[in-house]
Each structure stands twice: as structure tokens, then as C-alpha cells.
Amino acid sequence: MSTSTIAIITGGSRGLGQNSAMKLAQQGTDIILTYRSGEKEAAAVVAAIEKLGRKAVALPLDVGKSASFDAFAAKVRDVLSKTWQRDTFDFLVNNAGTGLHASIADTTEADFDELVNVHFKGVFFLTQKLLPLIADGGRIINISSGLARFAMPGSSAYAAVKGAVEVLTRYQAKELGARGIAVNTVAPGAIETDFRGGAVRDNPEIKKMIASVTALGRTGLPDDIGGVIATLLLPANRWINGQRIEASGGMFV
Q1: Each residue of 76-121: pLDDT tens digit?
Q2: Residue 98: domain span
Q3: Is residue 1 part of a domain?
Q4: Lower Cβ count inside 10 Å, N or C end of the chain?
Q5: Is there a catalytic annotation at residue 35?
Q6: Which of 72, 84, 89, 158 is labelled catalytic?
């Protein structure tokens, strides 16, 4: 039976999820990562984690389709048994997400529904379905956004569902406290990834604007967030609970 900690990271094949998976593996945690379409990318992350001497498994999951969660939970149970000889895992990082840049006037109902399904309904019910598999004393991290604190035109629907996740986090912390499970929100600022078509990473004007309103004078990098998530899951930080931790370099402070 495995004695290492095990983390499930949704959307772990790329971006912040990939970075978080690698950072956690570097500090001794085994990984179950999910991907929606990037099977090759997910396999590459698994191989990189295994090079570090950790175990890793990649499973397909669309967090916007809650009807699939029972089957996913059954698959997780099977993988835990076969790969780790365990019936529980320790950490859940609800990271997977999609972006939308549209004004309130231009946001369609279909756009809105997708954001709710992926970022809020998906987080709520995936966590619910996995609760029986999370070890007592485990931890959950939900990913929000700096946009839930400050307002930038074009992000109303995205920011609103992230705000809902922040409220949910506090309720999860309250209700799961009896099992010793701590739940926190990590809220990244603007990060250079392929999110929203790589807008922050690839557009010099956007990068310059963000740097100008950030106390540390630059845009964020995936390492800036993966490190926060991994550190938050260290044993020394288990007393942090029900908190929103923004990692934005001091955007709009």
C-alpha cells in the first residue's frame, strides 16, 4: 500500500494545472491528472512526473459535463486500487477551466452556461462525487481569479462564476471541517499561458498594461502559481482554511 500523498488535478495536461502537477511531484506527491482533449500532452506530463520517481495517471474528463462524474469517480476508485493499493486520495485541485472575453451586452446564454457548467457546477458536483474518496485530513484547492476582486471590462461572466467558487470554498471548509479537510481558494492574476489563446503571453500591449498595474512590475508566470498551490498543500500549511489567497504580484493593490 502506498504511503505517499496523492493529488487529483483537473486540467493537468497544460498551463497552470501542468505546472502545479510538476511542482507537487517535485515535493513527493503522486498525481492523477485529467485532460479534456490533450491526450498526448497529458501523457507527456505523466512521463515527466515518472522521471521524477513519482507515480502518475492521466484520465479523460470534461468538467463541464456533470453527468459523467459518477463514472469518473468509479474510474478514480479503480486507479487508486490498482496503482496505489489505496481507496482514498489526499488532495483535490479544481483547476480545469475555459475563458471568455466578452462584454455583458455581447455575452450569449450559451457562453454563460458553459462558464457556469465548467467553473461552478462542475466544481460543486465533481467535489461532491469525489468526497467519499478524499481521505480525512485531506485538502481541496479551488482556483478562482484576481478578476473576482477587481473588475476589467469583458470578464463579467467569467469573474462572476469565479466569485461563486470563492463563496463555495468557504462553505466547503465549514461543512468538511468535521473530517479535517481544509479548503482554500487560490486566485491567480494575469499569467502567461495558452489560456484564452495566449492573450497575456503573446500580446505585448496586454503584457505592458498588466505590468503597469502590478506592484512587482510584470505579468505572472506558471511557476508563480504552481509553487503557491504546491506550497499550500505542504503539511506545515494545513491550518490555513477557508481562505482566498491571491497570487497576482500585487495587481491593482
Answers
A1: 999 999 999 999 999 999 999 998 999 999 999 999 999 999 999 9
A2: 6-245
A3: no
A4: N
A5: no
A6: 158
